[in-house]
Specification:
Length: about 250
Amino acid sequence: MNAAPADQIRLLDLQAIDSRLDQLAHRRRSLPEHAEIEKINADHTALKDLVVAAQAQLGDTTRELTKAEQDVEQVRTRATRNQQRLDSGAITSPKDLENLQHEIGSLAKRQSDLEDVVLEVMERLESAQTRVTELSARLEHSSVILKEAEERRDAAFAEIDSEAEKVKRDRETVAVVIPADLLKLYTRLREQQGGVGAARLYQRRCEGCRVEFSTADLAAIKREPKDAVVRCENCSRILVRTADSGV
Ligand SMILES: [Zn+2]
């Protein structure tokens, strides 16, 4: 393949531009915010589950308290009724009186036991409420830091994208004047060779693979016509000769 030396040199400009675009794309992909957001999201999901579980626990304990309070109320009502019967003097049989007094005694013991249950459930209810409050606050905090991290990521994206747009416009200006067959070769080599399709010959080396050429190799390159498209024997990239290539 042949191409005017000036077009070959333009290829180096294009390479610099493409490398810059690659760097920007890499920077976009590897922003620290990506890992940060992923981590916060995972924490956020786990916290959400914990809040749901804590709220369910709170609901269960609230119902348990209602039930325990109803139990106390039931016993209290029965005890009051028995006491009224006793006070009314309507019961005269000694055996009935004894039974009634015995029941009043049992109910008082039962009420005291049930009141202890109420207190125990109230303590658990308080813990459940505290847990819901704490977890909700942590969830809220994670929402805030998630939003902050996303904003930082988006700001970085905007900055990178804006520079990339500018560099792409420069690329168009350079690419449009490079002959189509040379551009095609460069594009294919760039894909095959890790993003670098054209490299300068400088200080006896291919700047693509850094291989150093022997004197004989250099002499052979020197013999090539100026408009020949020379390829590096080692990496097969387009080897561009410039004024400071020494050949
Ligand atoms: Zn090379």
